[in-house]
Specification:
With 338 residues, this protein is mainly alpha-helical. Helices cover 69% and strands 0% of the residues. Helix 1 packs antiparallel against helix 7 (197-214), helix 2 packs antiparallel against helix 6 (166-190) and helix 6 (166-190) crosses helix 12.
């Protein structure tokens, strides 16, 4: 294929594709719910605790494994190829769509349909052979890397930038597409397309993330309200899944934990007026006081658990990137002639 060149355009097709992709995501989520009577009815093994993934075949076969891993592998290679092609085609951010965006959108839609067919016929996902923590960890890695990358634009703590993270953030920004594509597509194929409330919310979120990746090198990909919505969606996802599937008070940890990251970091990337930021902060504090006055002040530490982990992981990730940079520089330096 010849090099993919940017298409000069004053149109706004990327924005139209974004809204069309959002509509597709909701409609396909509804489709999973509609076709639930035709999905395999599995007699699952008993739930064995927090590290156990319930929705997998009790007796997997070579073909059920091959279809899950084969679909994942093809989808992963496809998305990595589109990213590589885009990065090596001297594309610019435009309001229109590049040809590679069209390829990515159509290709990802095909793999979304393929996964539904694979679930209906063979059911199993990657969960059969991998830990549930690997799926959760891939999402956490994505959220932490976003915090690192966005430090130079919106800061990390109340609009304040952490200066020494600048170089590692630059490297993260350069390669984030490949890492995000792995995390999203791995999680997508980890789960069978079940119609439980938790699965439907999760698949909707995954569809939206796949859409974001498909719009690389367009202005829609950089829209601060859209990208903030994707970050904040995990607040609703985590809270609703905790409420629906666990039926416990743990929802407060997810709600106030991710809401805390919003008021400390994410809202500073939206260009809000000071009174708006104070409004969000005041609403957050008021909600904490109301909820924990009823739940009990002994549970108040819940609100810092998720932020503490994520902010700590930002510096851990930055340290790992810095170490890799040093190692690459050391070995590349040795390879250079004296």
């Amino acid at each position: 294929m010849s090099a993919i060149q940017p298409k000069p355009s004053a149109d706004n097709r990327a924005s139209s594709a974004l809204w069309g992709g959002i509509l597709f995501s909701f409609l396909f989520t509804a489709l999973i719910w509609v076709v639930r009577p035709w999905l395999p009815q599995i007699d699952f093994l008993p739930d064995a605790g927090a590290s156990w993934y319930y929705w997998k075949l009790p007796e997997p076969t070579a073909i059920t494994r091959a279809t899950a891993w084969g679909g994942y592998f093809l989808h992963q290679v496809f998305m990595w190829w589109t990213i590589y092609k885009a990065q090596h085609s001297d594309l610019k951010y435009t309001p229109g769509l590049h040809r590679i965006n069209v390829i990515a959108l159509v290709g990802n839609a095909f793999f979304v349909f393929l996964h539904l067919v694979q679930t209906a016929v063979w059911y199993d996902g990657l969960a059969q052979d991998t830990s549930i923590f690997s799926s959760q960890g891939s999402v956490i890695l994505m959220l932490v890397m976003i915090l690192l990358m966005e430090n130079q634009r919106r800061g990390l703590f109340f609009g304040q930038k952490v200066g020494f993270l600048q170089e590692t953030a630059r490297v993260a920004r350069k390669y984030h597409g490949y890492i995000f594509a792995w995390g999203i597509i791995y999680t997508f194929w980890y789960h069978p397309m079940e119609s439980s409330s938790g699965h439907l919310i999760g698949f909707l979120y995954t569809f939206l993330l796949i859409l974001q990746g498909s719009l690389m090198f367009t202005r829609a990909h950089l829209n601060k309200y859209w990208t903030a919505a994707l970050e904040v969606f995990v607040l609703f996802h985590g809270t609703l899944v905790a409420l629906i599937t666990q039926g416990s008070d743990i929802w407060t940890m997810f709600f106030f934990g991710f809401a805390g990251i919003f008021v400390v970091t994410q809202m500073y990337g939206l260009g809000l007026k000071p009174w708006m930021r104070w409004g969000f902060l005041g609403s957050y504090v008021a909600a904490v006081l109301i909820v924990y006055s009823q739940k009990g002040w002994g549970y108040l530490n819940e609100i810092i658990r998720i932020p503490l982990i994520e902010y700590l992981l930002v510096f851990v990730l930055a340290g790992i990137i810095w170490l890799i940079m040093k190692l690459v520089g050391m070995f590349s330096g040795r390879a250079q002639p004296a």
